[in-house]
Amino acid sequence: MTTQDPKPSAPPARKAAAVPEPAEMPAEGTQAARHASARAGRASAVLEDYVELIDDLLTEEGEARPTDLARRLGVSHATAIKSIARLKALGLAYSRPYRSIFLTEEGHALARKVRARHRVVVDLLKAVGVPDDVAESDAEGLEHHVSEVTLEAFAAFLRRTGGKT
Question: pTM for the complete prediction?
Answer without folding.
Answer: 0.71
